């Protein structure tokens, strides 16, 4: 059972006189729950997603982003676990460390990466996650000892796939992958294609959910995963998101403009963001009200309250 | 401008080289002519941008670099099939003297410039490849090691009608104990007859005290194909020119280039094609990576002649910079004298994309590994053009070594 806890988060564009975008975000997402984060364009939803994941284009100017874990979340770790290993300040960690601890960002516009096949990328990611977790949880003295006799770490070519099978064997990898792809109704031919290169908008979104399914995050932040999807693909993607929660107990923070996906992925909580803050939270009925009435009434409520 | 005379060079030197190799009289004449051409020959043109001459060949101190009588190499030649002839010239004169005489210098004029003339006057190694009519051979390899201060190599490939051959050459440093700067010169000419197909891969990985000059040129006949793969990883300074003359109707050529520079390596990479007949096709694809303070300059030329009706000609060059201190210049040139032409040309110089990097990092991959994946991925489109597995593996391995 993991909890992502965001307290009074402030962030701006990381350049001189960069625009302030997040102005005190408070939000908590527990594993197993589905949260919808809605709000008009420019309210800061995507920025929040990127700041959680550690995007270098934003500078955090205040607040904290905490990840709390329990025994279940560290069951794969061999090293001895201290109390402090259950609580992490994500803002102090590199993006890949945050990912290894269980944060997943589903991109609104996933990068197209030429020359790196899906298979090699996914195996590299799975192995990197396992390695990084070992490092994060091991004691400092052990880490130093390791660093001394460590090779460069990158001893296999991603073009060929890892030569040593690392943590995940080929057969096991293929099995997990086939299962997840079937769930998402993805063709196995995807795996020989280059990462998102030439993928349609819908295929890219399916691929984001596939990656989440493979990496089994504690909390998945999905940024407009439903935009640009036709109804069939929307259903496939929704099935994938529900499976993240139902089968892996992932907490989902789903950023969306549309009520439509919420018919398939029913949220436990709905939040509304305006001007860089979460100004209103409620249950699934809040999303319906937003669909009917827009955001003006939320703004008025928030304004009156303030 | 003329280059300095090299005092250690004389007719006697050239005669001694020819004598030791028991060469026919015509070749000695060719060498002596090349030697006297040195007096007037110019160094190859280099790219100039305002205030800057990118590759300073004039700064090369040939007096100390050139040691003609102490050239030494270890070269292994292997042939997949005994229908093809793959021999050092010295062993080929008796039986194939006429073929050699008819073709030597016919594609690549020995007096083309100062460096080609120097090379022809002094070469002591190299290979003669003769593929008779209709013969189809896949695995000719020539693996050479350079053991001396200077080494001049000359290769001639004669592919007769409807023959097909794949040749891989590599040059690496050998055991020769030479301190200081070295000079390697490599001339390759290919005469590809009607409907002949030649794939020529070259891999240069000399040490960082070596200056390398290489000029490779093909004459492609009717329906002939010459595909080049030019990979440069080593040397302090590399000047490489790969050129195809599409002289027969329906002739084709592809020039694939890769380079990877680290520290203060300098690459001057040139790919050129002349469309001189109808229905000819050319495809120039080069990708290079620069790290540290390495520099590269690229020139690609597609020259479509008056009579080159229905030409297809494509050129792309991309340089990826891994360091803020690396420098690159690229100039793709398209000269069209016949407008029945479909052509494209482009060149880019860029850095690793920050969004791509973040995407991989957000999947647990650390930034160093992520960057390396992107660099290897960057080379994949050119690697995919390499049909020979062995060669592709070699190039991948060298890319990989530099990424450690």
Automatic annotation (TrEMBL), chain A:
Keyword Nucleotide-binding: yes
Record SMART domains: AAA
Disordered: annotated span: 132-166
Matching PROSITE patterns: ABC_TRANSPORTER_2 (PS50893)
MF terms in GO: ATP binding; ATP hydrolysis activity
UniProt biased composition (Acidic residues): 133-154
Name under which the protein is recorded: ABC transporter ATP-binding protein
UniProtKB/TrEMBL annotation, chain B:
PANTHER family: FES CLUSTER ASSEMBLY PROTEIN SUF (PTHR30508), UPF0051 PROTEIN ABCI8, CHLOROPLASTIC-RELATED (PTHR30508:SF1)
Protein name: Fe-S cluster assembly protein SufD
Family named by the database record: Belongs to the iron-sulfur cluster assembly SufBD family.
Species the sequence originates in: Halorubrum persicum
Residues of the SUF system FeS cluster assembly SufBD core domain: 147-378
Domain SUF system FeS cluster assembly SufBD N-terminal positions: 80-139
InterPro entries referenced in this protein's UniProt entry, alphabetically: Fe-S_cluster_assembly_SufBD (IPR055346), SUF_FeS_clus_asmbl_SufBD_core (IPR000825), SUF_FeS_clus_asmbl_SufBD_sf (IPR037284), SUF_FeS_clus_asmbl_SufD (IPR011542), SufBD_N (IPR045595)
Biological-process GO terms, alphabetical: iron-sulfur cluster assembly
Domain of life: Archaea
């Amino acid at each position: 059972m993991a909890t992502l806890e965001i307290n009074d988060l402030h962030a701006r564009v990381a350049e001189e006189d960069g625009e302030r975008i997040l102005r005190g975000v408070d939000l908590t997402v527990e594993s197993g729950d589905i949260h919808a984060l809605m709000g008009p364009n420019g309210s800061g939803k995507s920025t929040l997603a990127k700041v959680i994941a550690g995007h270098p284009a934003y500078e955090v100017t205040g607040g904290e982003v905490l990840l709390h874990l329990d025994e279940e979340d560290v069951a794969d770790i061999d090293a001895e676990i201290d109390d402090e290993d259950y609580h992490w300040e994500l803002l102090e960690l590199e993006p890949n460390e945050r990912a290894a601890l269980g944060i997943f960002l589903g991109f609104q516009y996933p990068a197209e990466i030429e020359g790196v096949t899906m298979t090699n990328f996914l195996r590299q990611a799975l192995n990197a996650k396992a390695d990084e977790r070992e490092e994060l949880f091991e004691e400092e003295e052990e880490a130093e000892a390791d660093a001394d006799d460590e090779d460069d770490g990158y001893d296999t070519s991603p073009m060929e796939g890892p030569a040593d099978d690392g943590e995940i064997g080929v057969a096991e990898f293929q099995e997990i992958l086939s299962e997840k792809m079937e769930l998402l109704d993805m063709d196995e031919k995807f795996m020989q294609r280059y990462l998102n290169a030439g993928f349609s908008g819908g295929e890219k979104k399916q691929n984001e959910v596939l990656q989440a399914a493979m990496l089994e995050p504690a909390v998945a932040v999905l940024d407009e995963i439903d935009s640009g999807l036709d109804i069939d693909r929307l259903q496939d993607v929704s099935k994938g998101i529900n499976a993240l929660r139902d089968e892996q107990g992932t907490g989902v923070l789903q950023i969306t403009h549309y009520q439509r996906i919420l018919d398939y992925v029913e949220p436990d909580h709905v939040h509304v963001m305006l001007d860089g803050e979460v100004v209103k939270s409620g249950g699934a009925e809040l999303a319906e009200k937003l669909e009917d009435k827009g955001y003006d009434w939320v703004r008025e409520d928030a304004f009156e309250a303030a | 401008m003329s280059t300095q005379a090299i005092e250690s060079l004389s007719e006697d030197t050239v005669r001694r080289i020819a004598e030791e190799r028991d060469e026919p009289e015509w070749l000695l004449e060719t060498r002596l002519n090349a030697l006297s051409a040195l007096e007037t020959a110019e160094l190859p043109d280099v790219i100039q941008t305002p205030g800057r001459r990118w590759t300073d060949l004039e700064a090369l101190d040939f007096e100390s670099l050139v040691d003609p009588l102490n050239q030494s190499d270890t070269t292994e030649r292997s042939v997949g099939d005994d229908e093809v002839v793959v021999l050092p010239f010295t062993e080929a004169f008796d039986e194939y003297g006429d073929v050699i005489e008819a073709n030597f210098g016919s594609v690549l004029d020995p007096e083309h410039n100062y460096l080609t003339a120097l090379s022809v006057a002094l070469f002591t190694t190299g290979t003669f490849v003769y593929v008779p009519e209709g013969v189809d051979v896949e695995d000719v390899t020539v693996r050479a090691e350079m053991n001396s201060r200077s080494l001049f190599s000359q290769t001639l490939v004669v592919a007769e009608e409807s023959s097909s051959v794949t040749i891989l050459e590599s040059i690496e440093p050998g055991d020769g104990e030479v301190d200081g700067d070295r000079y390697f010169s490599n001339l390759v000419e290919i005469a590809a007859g009607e409907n002949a197909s030649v794939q020529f891969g070259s891999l240069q990985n000399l040490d960082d005290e070596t200056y390398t000059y290489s000029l490779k040129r093909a004459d492609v006949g009717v329906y002939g194909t010459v595909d080049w793969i030019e990979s440069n990883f080593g040397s302090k300074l590399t000047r490489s020119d790969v050129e195809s003359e599409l002289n027969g109707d329906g002739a084709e050529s592809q020039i694939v280039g890769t380079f990877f520079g680290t520290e203060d390596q300098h690459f001057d990479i040139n790919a050129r094609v002349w469309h001189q007949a109808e229905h000819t096709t050319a495809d120039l694809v080069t990708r290079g990576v620069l790290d540290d303070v390495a520099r590269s300059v690229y020139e690609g030329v597609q020259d479509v002649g008056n009579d080159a009706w229905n030409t297809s000609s494509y050129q792309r060059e991309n340089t990826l910079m891994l360091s803020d201190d690396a420098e690159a210049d690229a100039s793709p040139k398209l000269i069209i004298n016949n407008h029945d032409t479909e052509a494209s040309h482009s060149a880019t110089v860029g850095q690793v994309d920050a969004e791509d990097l973040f995407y991989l990092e957000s999947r647990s991959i650390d930034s160093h590994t992520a960057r390396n994946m992107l660099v290897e991925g960057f080379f994949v489109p050119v690697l995919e053009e390499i049909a020979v597995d062995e060669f592709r593996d070699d190039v991948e391995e060298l890319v990989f070594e530099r990424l450690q």
